[in-house]
């Protein structure tokens, strides 16, 4: 299997996402880490990004709300190599009407080898990592070559 490197710069592209019952927890976490996060590019799904921006004064680019396409928009940025890691506080105790979208977003994050924090402890570990302030080389399976290899294996 062949891999390609995606290099994240010192200034990270960080996605911030939270389900309704977890939004206040994410906002509190962002407020505690505002001095670090202000030095990075922030984005998030609709309501979450808007609330974080309003409550913290940080500039957070807002995609659509998750259930109406924001999860897919964010997923496409991950595929393009434009998200370095994701903080996604999802609600483990409540079913989500857009659960397939949530699973797809997490799946794409794993597929493209980005760090994903689903809780405060993991988010704290990510921000305290020495990679936070340096470039990081993330290896990703080269799916274009994998697809071409599979095409060449097809027997007609």
From TrEMBL:
GO terms assigned for molecular function: methylglyoxal synthase activity
Binding residues for substrate: 19, 23, 45-48, 65-66, 98
The reaction(s) this protein catalyses: dihydroxyacetone phosphate = methylglyoxal + phosphate
Domain MGS-like: 5-156
Active-site residues annotated for this sequence: 71 (proton donor/acceptor)
PROSITE patterns: METHYLGLYOXAL_SYNTH (PS01335), MGS (PS51855)
Keyword annotations from UniProtKB, A to Z: Lyase
InterPro entries for this protein: Methylgl_synth, Methylglyoxal_synth_AS, MGS-like_dom, MGS-like_dom_sf
Pfam families: MGS
Domain of life assignment: Bacteria
Entry's EC annotation: 4.2.3.3
Keyword Lyase: yes
Function text: Catalyzes the formation of methylglyoxal from dihydroxyacetone phosphate.
Protein family according to the UniProt entry: Belongs to the methylglyoxal synthase family.
Protein name, per record: Methylglyoxal synthase
């Amino acid at each position: 299997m062949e891999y390609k490197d995606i290099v994240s710069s010192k200034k990270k592209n960080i996605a911030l996402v939270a389900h309704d019952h977890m939004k206040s927890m994410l906002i509190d976490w962002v407020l505690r880490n505002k001095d670090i996060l202000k030095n990075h590019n922030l984005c998030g799904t609709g309501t979450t990004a808007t609330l974080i921006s309003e409550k913290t004064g940080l500039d957070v680019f807002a995609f659509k709300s998750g259930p109406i396409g924001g999860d897919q928009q964010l997923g496409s940025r991950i595929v393009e190599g434009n998200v370095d890691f994701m903080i996604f506080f999802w609600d483990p105790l409540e079913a989500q009407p857009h659960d397939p979208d949530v699973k797809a977003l997490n799946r794409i994050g794993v597929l493209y080898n980005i760090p994903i924090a689903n809780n405060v402890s993991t988010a704290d570990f990510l921000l305290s990592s020495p990679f936070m302030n340096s470039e990081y080389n993330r290896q990703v399976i080269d799916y274009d070559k994998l697809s071409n290899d599979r095409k060449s294996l097809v027997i007609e």
